[in-house]
């Protein structure tokens, strides 16, 4: 299996910089997910690794060998792209068997391997059918099967489940994860679905505008976002992000959330991080909806808020709370909170909230990098 290294990769299409100074090391047997919004450069990075695109700058190394000049076939990598291509004249069995026949694997071995992946992907009863009579989801599973049946150095999967219905997607996701652990194959999986990314990845690489924003375990990326982009992209509902400024209150420095009465004391550690960030570009405060607590009575910090909107989601409710009004735009300053459905409130009610001290984030407004 393979260790993959991208060193200072840059890829341009005319004026568009699709991939910018990209550095990433993927360990042997690791499952890395490329996550980011449409157009951020996920597919291009995958195509560069596969050899379907050439970088303008930088090196791609597989197991320590520079592969920039190797053709896709010589890189021994199996890829399944969003727009899969099956051989229309071959049935499903022969489509899956094709890569093994091409390298003259014994017939009995081919048969065993095709049947094994067909079982995993639940396509055993369509092995005799031609692609023209398959549904989109079935075609996608055949394309996955054709990659899985090989034992390449690495798998590159570009939104391989885009056409599957919700249930099949969850089942196939679990199978891909199980299979990847069983085979122990280095895998890079592209998606814009953060739930898919969180559930599959050993590490997630979050990409935005061709730049690798953060690489880390799902826990790290979710709980310790290094940039404003990662903080806002991960999580449903998204992290609350509110402009903030430091101000002096009774001789000590506090963080004031703009256009609200909310002032937050700083822990010694937060104060130290603040002091080490000397740029003073302005700040953005962040807290996730699940790291706020609500109450009918004033609690520790005595932060009052009005209920603006209630979204009942069954197992949880999402409340939009108003903390104040923007002085210039007159827009409400909103905070989203996740509450238990037994916490009954009506729109317009006044409630009290508090923030979990250990789960507060702070970002530099200009550099967008995390300070806490
Ligand atoms: P999606 O999730 O929509 O597939 P992506 O993150 O995979 O998006 P890419 O397909 O890698 O994004 O595209 C990155 C950028 O490069 C986009 O701005 C895209 O328009 C541009 N791009 C990609 N391929 C080409 C090409 N062959 N010619 C010109 N521009 C391209």
Any overview of this molecule?
This protein is an alpha+beta fold. The protein is built from 9 helices and 20 strands. It has helices at residues 42-50, 92-102, 107-120, 136-148, 166-183, 194-200, 218-223, 228-233, 268-276, and strands at 4-13, 16-26, 31-35, 57-62, 65-66, 77-80, 154-158, 186-191, 203-208, 211-216, 240-249, 252-257, 263-265, 283-287, 292-295, 303-312, 317-325, 332-339, 350-355, 361-364. It has a 6-stranded mixed sheet with strand order 6-7-8-3-9-10, with helices on both faces. Strands 13-12-11-14-20 form a 5-stranded antiparallel sheet. α2 packs parallel to α4 (136-148). The longest helix has 18 residues, at 166-183. The mean pLDDT is 90. The structure holds adenosine-5'-triphosphate. Adenosine-5'-triphosphate is lined by residues 13, 16, 18, 36, 38-44, 192.
Task: Describe what is shown at a glance.
By secondary structure, the chain is an alpha+beta fold. It has helices spanning 42-50, 92-102, 107-120, 136-148, 166-183, 194-200, 218-223, 228-233, 268-276; strands at 4-13, 16-26, 31-35, 57-62, 65-66, 77-80, 154-158, 186-191, 203-208, 211-216, 240-249, 252-257, 263-265, 283-287, 292-295, 303-312, 317-325, 332-339, 350-355, 361-364.
């Amino acid at each position: 299996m393979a260790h993959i290294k991208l060193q200072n990769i840059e890829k341009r299409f005319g004026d568009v910089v699709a991939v910018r100074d990209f550095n990433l090391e993927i360990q042997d047997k690791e499952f890395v997910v490329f996550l980011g919004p449409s157009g951020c450069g996920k597919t291009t990075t995958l195509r560069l690794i596969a050899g379907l695109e050439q970088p303008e700058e930088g090196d791609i190394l597989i197991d320590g060998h520079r592969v920039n000049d190797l053709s896709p076939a010589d890189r021994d990598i199996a890829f399944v792209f969003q727009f899969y291509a099956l051989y229309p004249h071959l049935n499903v069995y022969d489509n899956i068997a094709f890569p093994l026949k091409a390298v003259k694997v014994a017939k009995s071995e081919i048969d065993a391997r095709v049947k094994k992946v067909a079982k995993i992907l639940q396509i055993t009863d369509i092995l005799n059918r031609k692609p023209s009579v398959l549904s989109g989801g079935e075609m996608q599973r055949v394309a996955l099967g054709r990659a899985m049946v090989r034992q390449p150095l690495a798998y590159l999967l570009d939104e391989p489940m885009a056409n599957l219905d919700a249930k099949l997607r969850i089942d196939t996701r679990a199978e891909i994860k199980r299979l990847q652990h069983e085979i122990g194959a280095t895998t890079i999986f592209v998606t814009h679905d953060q739930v898919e990314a969180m559930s599959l990845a050993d590490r997630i690489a979050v990409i935005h505008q061709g730049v690798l924003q953060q690489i880390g375990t799902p826990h790290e990326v979710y709980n310790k976002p290094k940039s404003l982009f990662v903080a806002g992209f991960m999580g449903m509902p998204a992290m609350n992000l509110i402009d903030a400024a430091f101000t002096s209150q009774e001789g000590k420095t506090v963080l004031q959330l703009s256009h609200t009465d909310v002032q937050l004391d700083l822990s010694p550690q937060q104060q130290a991080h603040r002091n080490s960030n000397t740029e003073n570009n302005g700040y953005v405060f962040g807290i996730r909806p699940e790291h706020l607590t609500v109450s009918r009575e004033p609690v520790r910090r005595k932060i009052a808020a009005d209920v603006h909107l209630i979204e009942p989601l069954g197992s949880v409710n999402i409340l939009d709370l108003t903390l104040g009004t923007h002085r210039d735009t007159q827009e409400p300053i909103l905070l989203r909170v996740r509450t238990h459905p037994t916490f009954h409130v009506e729109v317009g009610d006044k409630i009290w909230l508090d923030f979990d001290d250990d789960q507060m984030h702070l970002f530099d407004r200009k550099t967008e990098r995390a300070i806490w």
